[in-house]
Give the backbone structure.
Amino acid sequence: MSVANAAHSVVEPSAHARRFAGLLVILYAIITMIPLVWIVLTSFKSPDDAISYPPKILFKPSVEGYCNLFTTRSRQTPEFIQTLGQPRGLCDSIARSRNMVVAGPSNYVPRFVNSLIIAFGSTMLAVALGTLSAYGFSRFRVPLKDDLLFFILSTRMMPPIAVAIPIYLMYRTLGLSDTRLGMILLYTSVNVSLAVWLLKGFIDEIPREYEEAAMIDGYTRFQAFVKVVLPQATTGIAATAIFCLIFAWNEYAFAVLLTSGNAQTAPPFIPIIIGEGGQDWPAVAAGTTLFLVPIVVFTVLLRKHLLRGITFGAVRK
Amino acid sequence: MAQIRVDALDKSFGTFHAVKAASFTVEDGQFLCLLGPSGCGKTTTLRMIAGLELPTAGTIRLGGEDVTMNRASARDIAFVFQLFALYPHMNVRRNIGFPLKCERVGAAERDRRVVEAARILRISHLLDRWVSGLAGGDRQRVALGRAIVRKPKCFLMDEPLGALDTEMREAMIHELRALHDRLGATTVYVTHDQLEAMAMADMIAVMNNGVVEQVASPRDIYDRPASLFVADFIGSPPMNFLPFHGSLQTGAQAVWLGEREIAIPAAREALAESDLVLGVRPEHVRFTDRGMVRGEVYGSEYLGTTQIVTVTTRYGALKARSSSSIYFRTGESVGLDFRPNTLSVFDKASGRAIRTALYEGGAHG
């Protein structure tokens, strides 16, 4: 091979193409990151800076948004505030500078806890049910298998909100309205079809010989499933769990319709945080910023499983 | 170790009849190969012996005990899969020890037996490696290790060498046979490769379309095929078939192919006028100018010490194995002769071999 030809490779992109691809990726990243960055910036603005026009890029950072997110405040006369002692903490002093005092905690924490319980609860349930039924569909001769799988998929063919009214009436009759259990069951039923289909693909990829070998070696089918199939399906289970969690975590429409005082999740709560004289945008932005954290943490924790092909090379095909 | 007795085993998948009344016995310590083309039912038969499939009808006895409907785990057998089925989330030591763990053997005893199995298979140095980094042959040894560590009643192997390259396969054939001789384990081995079967087996069961065509020693399978299929499937190149029409008397020592009389081993049964087939192995064809069958040389394949010469005759193309020192010209007219005591005669309609003196020498003809 001549030296001139050696520079050409059929598998390596040229330097030019590499630069172009890099540029595209950076552009796309900027476009998708701008709203997120803006939300985070807004959460640290004062209410005046948040609605100033033209929008401020540089501003004096403030934690007022976070204070307003976690507290409720009441307006008092300056004279009354004078009679109070030292402000209790940072948020109290910020409130007093606006002639207000902290009256108590807001509902954000209970709403956030509701979101955590409902999203993780429904994800676990959907993934557990999905793994078992995907295994069944993958390994056994199920009568009407294709029809059943299509039926399961068909539950996702319309937007879930299309059945909102029947579900609302049903939940009211069953006493599931505005309960955490009701929301867990609802999100599970939406997610389980996704879980079955995704996991069936992953389990189909695991050769049956593994379980057969384990069964010959003395395990029952269930033991073989737990000890041999599950460890190899981790990648698929992790990916499925993330998809289910993202849906359940972000779901808004059902949450607005079916929850209020008791089981309300964070998504319907955040946009209705009202400050004095209208929407309290820094508080909304602060609520949104904190709301992003669990999903990011969960995804980063599971990233190792998402990227690792643990069966690679163990079976020769 | 134990005898395996399979009796009238049947298996249907819906409308597909995969195994039809398969019967054979593997004696204690014997190495039996189930040999046949893809889809002949050999793997299904093996899986039924293992308990991975349940038969539609028939019985399976392991060491005299009827295990037909027992769970795989209750049969005390070891199975070696074509794709090895090593657990990728365990290292070699834990893979080999896995069956013992299932049986709740204590950790110290387990480790002792794993080390011993590894020593027999010469993979002691690999015990703490992960299976995903191993070469094909080593993976196969680990899979064998998992089979031998438990000292089961019998070994079942489903094309265990099918995923290896040719060189490794050659080496493993000898290792497997040596391992078998050392352990004296009753073994059923599924393969579609006749060379593997011939090299390893004490007994070969040839299957076709779900039917066991013949169960016999490799020598008998080759020299005394029980059916047209066996004669055709075994041997490379396969047996030549010369179709003719005629009848046979008991004791007849020749058949008429058209106007030529060809000597055969003495017939032991009488046959009315029917379509018959004379079977001749390529190495039993001799070139002679006074030959009974005449033809034209079509071409020859050079194989080193021998060559395969294809001759066009009125009975079709015949292949003959001859010394490669003879030179054949394409188009040359030659005479052919057959060694009479080695010929087989088949009934064309049923494919069955006609009983002749040839089959009397065989123990399992």
Observations:
- Helices of chain B lie at 42-50, 92-102, 107-120, 136-148, 166-183, 194-200, 218-223, 228-233.
- Residues 166-183 of chain B form the longest helix (18 residues).
- Chain B touches chain A at residues 50-52, 71-73, 75, 77-79, 81-89, 98-99, 102-103, 131-133, 136, 139, 146, 150, 163 (CB under 8 Å).
